[in-house]
């Protein structure tokens, strides 16, 4: 005779739906504890017990029951174990369970793939999560009713996170802009708004958030409590967007409308409270600093993403600096960054370096601050935040050459280290972009080309990061195309090939590849010619006749650059003399008041007064000076010569060419 507990359990399981999960747990527990069941009945009871615990959100108890059931139960409950580990925040353990089930090989159940996508999303492996959701979306076989909408919601969320990570290249072009289907549900409209926020399009994000809020308030699928829970993140995001748009009154109104006591998710509560600190920090930074320290700690699976944590910590650093907590911030920055062997490019470490530099100088600026920070950089040579702060100060005081020299010294030290970690930092896209910007400000185009070419070569050699260097490869390819040297064109072609390997449908890369190899390797160009738009399509709608009739607009060169050659009239003869502009009317010359046109002007009027023939000096001394004066004439030098035999003396003109030293007689030495 069957055990009563087993019979009751089987009767419950035969029902179409089970609403009382506590009853199912009680019956399954009683059946397991009964010693009269073995084999399939025991396995079914244990499985029911695990599912009931998950339905009751008792995830730790579910994991304990699976562990007590042995290997057989663990194998049968792979989905349940992975889900329980995911809900408790053990993402690494959940990934290990999923790998055993064969999720990566595509042989797993559809439910396991959904769990794998959620685990990858919470573990911030958004590329993998988006790939899983795309596979599920394309594989419609075995899909449940309403699953397509859930997949679209999860896929748009993963795309938003990828763009927040700076991986726009990993998002297909058709998924970057919101589609019509995204405006039909408040979840997809919210995710589309997040995508716009991630790329800085706050105006469009404001419209989408309003649409999401209206849809959420009008839906009939949720009760009032569920609507309030779903509206909280929408309102928080709306307040953030209004703040970025400068609408502070609207943002404050929305923040006050949020009842934080009713928010169940700790992460959402922390973000809402953190955004409220902005107006308080402006009014009284000391109160804002106290409230920032009172923010709740997040534990378990309900945690912030890395970019959210970094933004929250950045706000705390700014509030601490406003509250003049310079010494503590400087000590913390030096303690965490001084011993780094490899420069850290993470947002948190870079922000900490900037905050430490501000604390060390008490938020100073100008040349004195630069002189104060340079010795600190020698103590912390791997502090990128400090390095960027000094460069920014150089830019503010308009002294770019020292900034370029400082960055080049940093690059040289990284290259001399010759380790993969140092080289990756050397060619980080952000630092390469900074170097290119500084070079272009000094019109150093050759250095720009060399820097981009080296960076593109480095990222092309790293196959596991083929997409990470796509932005550098694009910039390098466009820059190298401006050169006519064959080696530069070949390097540009390789850069565009790298982009196409990661993004096959990229039109810019396709056009660049064709332009690079058009004159050297037509075999590489030919497969891409059909994907480019034809000339007829590009010129569609252009009225050629109207353009010909209108003529070609020419810029008139400056008068100094106009050619003085005669224009050719097409018949071999010079054209007729063009109409000249009327000459300007000459100005009327001014004449002296006593000018008499009948009287002939004095021809010696341009000579000095003393050189004129009419000049008569006054007095004897005046006449003598007049004879001795030169007024530009030749000076006659005379000397007296004694005649032989005492016959007297005579004055003669001295011969020229002797110089001033010729008049001096050589002294005779004493005998």
From TrEMBL:
UniProt region (Disordered), positions on chain: 557-671
Keyword check for Cytoplasm: yes
Superkingdom per UniProt: Eukaryota
Keywords of this entry: Cytoplasm, Endoplasmic reticulum, Ribonucleoprotein, Signal recognition particle
UniProt key word Ribonucleoprotein: yes
Role this protein plays: Component of the signal recognition particle (SRP) complex, a ribonucleoprotein complex that mediates the cotranslational targeting of secretory and membrane proteins to the endoplasmic reticulum (ER).
Protein name stated in the entry: Signal recognition particle subunit SRP72
Organism: Podospora anserina (strain S / ATCC MYA-4624 / DSM 980 / FGSC 10383)
């Amino acid at each position: 005779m069957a055990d009563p507990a087993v019979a009751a359990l089987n009767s419950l399981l035969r029902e179409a739906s089970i609403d009382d999960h506590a009853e199912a747990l009680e019956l399954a527990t009683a059946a397991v504890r009964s010693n009269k069941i073995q084999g399939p009945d025991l396995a079914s009871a244990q499985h029911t017990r695990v599912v009931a615990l998950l339905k009751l959100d008792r995830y730790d108890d579910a994991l304990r029951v699976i562990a007590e059931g042995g290997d057989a139960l663990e194998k049968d409950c792979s989905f349940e174990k992975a889900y329980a580990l995911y809900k408790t925040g053990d993402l690494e353990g959940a990934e290990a369970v999923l790998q055993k089930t064969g999720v990566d090989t595509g042989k797993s159940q559809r439910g396991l793939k959904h769990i794998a996508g959620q685990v990858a999303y919470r573990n911030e492996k958004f590329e993998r999560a988006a790939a899983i959701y795309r596979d599920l979306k394309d594989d419609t076989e075995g899909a449940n009713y309403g699953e397509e909408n859930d997949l679209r919601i999860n896929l748009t969320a993963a795309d938003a996170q990828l763009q927040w990570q700076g991986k726009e290249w990993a998002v297909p072009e058709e998924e970057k802009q919101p589609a019509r289907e995204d405006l039909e549900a408040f979840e997809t409209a919210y995710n589309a708004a997040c995508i716009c926020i991630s790329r800085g399009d706050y105006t469009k994000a404001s419209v989408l958030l309003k649409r999401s809020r209206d849809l959420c308030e009008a839906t009939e699928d949720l009760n009032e409590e569920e609507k309030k829970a779903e509206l909280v993140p929408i309102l928080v995001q709306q307040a953030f967007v209004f703040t970025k748009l400068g609408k502070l009154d609207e943002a404050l109104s929305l923040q006050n409308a949020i009842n934080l006591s009713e928010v169940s998710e700790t992460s959402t509560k922390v973000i809402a409270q953190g955004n409220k600190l902005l107006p308080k920090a402006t009014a009284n930074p000391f109160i804002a600093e106290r409230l920032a320290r009172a923010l709740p700690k997040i534990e378990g699976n309900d945690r912030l993403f890395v970019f959210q944590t970094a933004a929250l910590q950045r706000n705390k650093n700014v509030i601490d600096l406003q509250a003049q907590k310079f010494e503590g911030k400087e000590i913390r920055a030096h303690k965490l960054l001084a011993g780094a062997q490899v420069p850290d490019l993470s947002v948190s470490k870079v922000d900490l370096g900037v905050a430490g530099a501000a604390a060390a100088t008490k938020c100073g600026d100008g040349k004195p601050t630069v002189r104060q920070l340079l010795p600190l950089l020698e103590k912390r040579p791997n502090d990128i935040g400090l390095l960027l702060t000094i460069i920014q100060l150089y830019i503010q005081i308009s002294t770019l050459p020292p900034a370029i020299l400082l960055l080049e010294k940093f690059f040289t030290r990284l290259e001399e280290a010759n380790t993969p970690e140092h080289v990756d930092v050397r060619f980080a896209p952000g630092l390469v972009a900074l170097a290119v910007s500084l070079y272009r400000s000094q019109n150093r185009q050759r250095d720009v080309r060399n820097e981009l070419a080296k960076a593109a070569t480095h990222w092309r050699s790293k196959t596991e990061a083929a997409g990470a260097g796509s932005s550098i490869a694009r910039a390098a390819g466009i820059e190298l195309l401006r050169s006519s040297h064959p080696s530069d064109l070949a390097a540009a072609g390789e850069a565009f090939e790298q982009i196409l390997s990661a993004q096959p449908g990229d039109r810019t890369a396709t056009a660049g590849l064709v332009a690079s190899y058009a004159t050297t390797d037509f075999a590489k160009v030919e497969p891409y010619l059909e994907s480019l738009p034809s000339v007829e399509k590009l010129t569609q709608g252009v009225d050629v006749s109207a353009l010909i009739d209108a003529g070609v607009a020419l810029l008139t060169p400056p008068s100094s650059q106009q050619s003085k050659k005669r224009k050719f009239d097409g018949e071999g003869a010079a054209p007729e003399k063009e109409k000249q502009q009327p000459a300007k009317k000459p100005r009327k010359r001014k004449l002296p008041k006593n000018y008499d046109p009948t009287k002939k002007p004095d021809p010696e009027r341009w000579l000095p007064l003393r050189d004129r023939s009419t000049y008569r000096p006054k007095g004897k001394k005046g006449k003598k000076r007049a004879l001795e004066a030169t007024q530009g004439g030749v000076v006659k030098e005379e000397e007296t010569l004694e005649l032989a035999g005492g016959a007297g003396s005579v004055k003669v003109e001295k011969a020229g060419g002797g110089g001033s030293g010729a008049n001096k007689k050589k002294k005779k030495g004493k005998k």
